Amino acid sequence: MKEPIIKVTNLSHRYNAQWAIKDINFEFQEKGIYGLLGANGAGKSTLMNIICGVLNQSEGDVFINGINLREQPVVAKKHIGFLPQQPPLQLELTIKEYLQYCAGLRLMPENTIKAAVEEVMEKCQISHFAGRIIKNLSGGYQQRVGIAQSIIHKPDFIVLDEPTNGLDPNQILEVRSLIKDIATERTVLLSTHILQEVQALCDDIWMINEGQIIFSGSLDEFDNYIMPSTFTATLLASPPEAELLNIPGIQAVEIIGHTKYRLQFDNDKEIIEKFIKICVDKDWRLMEVALEKGSLNTVFAELSKKKVQSN
Ligand SMILES: Nc1ncnc2c1ncn2[C@@H]1O[C@H](COP(=O)(O)OP(=O)(O)OP(=O)(O)O)[C@@H](O)[C@H]1O
């Protein structure tokens, strides 16, 4: 059977007495973009640094294409590309010089470097600036160079730590489009604290909080993970609030217009059906009823709360 591109088993790390990440397990089999979402201090950079072989874990293992990263770091790292939060750019070099230097660091054979640099500049659309000194480039172009250094050795697994941080809206769109493009051929793990980033880019999400994975699944699953607990209803007969509160399962009522109400319910899955029947029986002239789905932001906050409550 094919080995997963990356497999992490029982991974834990502590800097001192406090665990920064604890007992993390996951594996990716497919190409695509996987989002690692978490607030500041959740443990993203620690996890990324370990996965890329920059930091040695306290416990557990990382396998890249079946190769144990701790036991065979040089072989394993040939399969990994890494763009840390602070791109490791040499600001005084030109793009071409810098990428040649990176190819050397990656131990690429001398006779392959020239073509690899040309190819990666083409891919990242920076060929026209090949001779330009990096410090004179815009933030968006510097980030393209950062991405170029991460794929120059053609790794099949790429880790991008907050890749659009500090960019303006146009630059964000351009860098996202480049990430999507490179992910067609590779597996990309992208860390971010920005919900819109995972919405725009990722196929699957891992959410990390206080060093532990508290959710993994598709974007839709993430969005639906927290069941809705409110619905709105338009009732042209404008019944009094007290009558609505009398409906079994309804916990609170908010009046949000002359005829519009927001009703909070317990975990009764048939509440809408029951509510519609009552409206018809009482002739409240129901015009509209709609479940309110939690936004990604709400889900994020709820998941963090759930984790705290379960501890
Ligand atoms: N070198 C270090 N020494 C001691 N503690 C550290 C060190 N680096 C990180 N930590 C702690 O480990 C925990 C996880 O930090 P980490 O940087 O991995 O989180 P993060 O999700 O990447 O946050 P950010 O987005 O702010 O970088 C935090 O409590 C942090 O204070």
Automatic annotation (TrEMBL):
Superkingdom, natural source: Bacteria
An MF annotation (GO) of this entry: ATP binding
Domain ABC transporter span(s) in chain numbering: 6-235
Protein known as: ABC transporter ATP-binding protein
One Pfam family, short name: ABC_tran
Keyword ATP-binding: yes
Lineage: Bacteria, Pseudomonadati, Bacteroidota, Sphingobacteriia, Sphingobacteriales
InterPro entries in the record: AAA+_ATPase, ABC_transporter-like_ATP-bd, ABC_transporter_ATP-binding, P-loop_NTPase
Keywords: ATP-binding, Nodulation, Nucleotide-binding, Transport
Keyword Transport: yes
Recorded family membership: Belongs to the ABC transporter superfamily.
